[in-house]
Amino acid sequence: MKIAVIGSGYVGLVTGACFADLGVDVVCVDSNTDKVQRLQRGEIPIYEPGLNTMVEQAVANERLQFTTDIAQAVAGRSIVFIAVGTPSSEDGSADLGHVLQAAQAIGQTIDGFTVVVDKSTVPVGTADRVHAVIARQLQERGVQHAFVVASNPEFLKEGAAIDDFMRPDRVVLGLPPGELGLKARALLDDLYAPLTRNHQRTLYMDVRSAELTKYAANAMLATRISFMNELANLADVVGADIESVRQGIGSDRRIGYDFLYAGLGYGGSCLPKDIRALRDTGRQYGVRLGVIDAVEEANAHQKKVLLQKITTRLGEDLTGCHFALWGLAFKPNTDDMRDAPSRYVVRELLRRGATVCGYDPAAMAEAHHAFVHDLADQPDWLARLRLTESADAALAGADALVILTEWKAFRTPHFGKLRAALRQPLVFDGRNLYPPHRMQAEGFEYHAIGRCGPA
Ligand code: UDX
Questions:
Q1: Closest residue by CA, ligand 1 atom 1
Q2: Does pTM surpass 0.90?
Q3: CB within 6 Å of ligand 1 — which residues?
Q4: Residue 387: its H or E element
Q5: Is the confidence at residue 454, as pLDDT, over 70?
Q6: Of residues 18, 28, 270, 452, which has the active-site annotation?
Q7: Environment class of residue 373 by beta-carbon count within 10 Å: exposed (0-12), middle (13-18) or buried (19+)?
Q8: Tens of pLDDT, residues 255-310
Q9: Domain residues of the chain, as ranges?
């Protein structure tokens, strides 16, 4: 089987590498020449556990190639994935520029029956637009190749993407009705057979339902998080413990335990963008999506909660205060800084006159990039930010430790050393890493999210 994957970002690269690992002949395309050259040398532009080795092996076995040439990649391949970015536009809608460009290039190139698969997260109705673009190109070329546009959304979590790909909860295939849809289904079934052979995990549906399924999944996850964040804020005021509440409700099988962790609000490249795009779809069709609106508003508020705890304790003017920050990436096991809560917290601490020393186990380069970008308008603030080589180095002489990402390495610190390194035993934990009673016993003043009563 031979496939092409257009877009070698996070989703495209993981998809291409995993299929190659399963024995498929894969060519990944990207318009960025520098990136393609680096990938050809085996340099992976993102931090994703296991991906390096997988790409290296697949390239060595000649099952995975990288190119900037879409025409060369698509020619002779019966399945072409579109896995390009769909960033938020100014108005919150998904920017489909890259998707439609890919469709155009596909239409200019295909030379036989082709299944074009939307892997990118795209608003309902995009497959129809992709279909129209390809059909127009074929018409202009004066050729009549049959093709199908299918929807096959990804459900990969950064940091666990390979496992999610290789052991999917489900494979969603949205296909058009009729003969061509069945032909496409047979090809995609073959492609996914190694992942679905032992358990039937494929869910077949119409294309629009598949497109909406992706948004529904991310919106449900975001809703659970915002719901728990609001209850955590309430728990802080009424003197309850959100972790006990989580266990209390998670034990109900209808609810379950996952994705109920209160914290700094959801971030990353998907949840915020997809919620905005779903809201935009509601607006476009004139359908009220009140729950989804509230989820985003709650998340915007949640970003501020830890900072409010800091200023309530230390004052609005933080001049002369020195903070150690543990964790900068939006979540553990990734170096992704997109919509990372650390970007808000760092800016606000610096704005109030503080000095900040930050550390992250994987995201130092990305963090440097992000902060230089964010603070380009405020060089004086940037001068008060330092990134250190280790968690210990960040602590030296700090007035307080602020925890922003729940990396495993931060879960069991030596509390004695931690206390000794800080000028005062003060911890603000946006990820609820430690039991409050333990922190109290260790002599810390511990502020977490929904765990300790008001600051
Ligand atoms: C998400 C979806 O999980 C995945 O299925 C989809 O394909 C892409 O978007 P990802 O962005 O990698 O994946 O991160 P995820 O693990 O979902 O976390 C998203 C955000 O929610 C993070 O900021 C995380 O810190 C936060 N989160 C997650 C919570 O605050 N509480 C939780 O209980 C879980």
A1: 157
A2: yes
A3: 154-158, 218, 221, 225, 259-261, 263, 266-268, 270-271, 330-331
A4: strand 385-387
A5: no
A6: 270
A7: exposed
A8: 999 999 999 999 998 999 999 999 999 999 999 999 999 999 999 999 999 999 99
A9: 2-205, 220-447
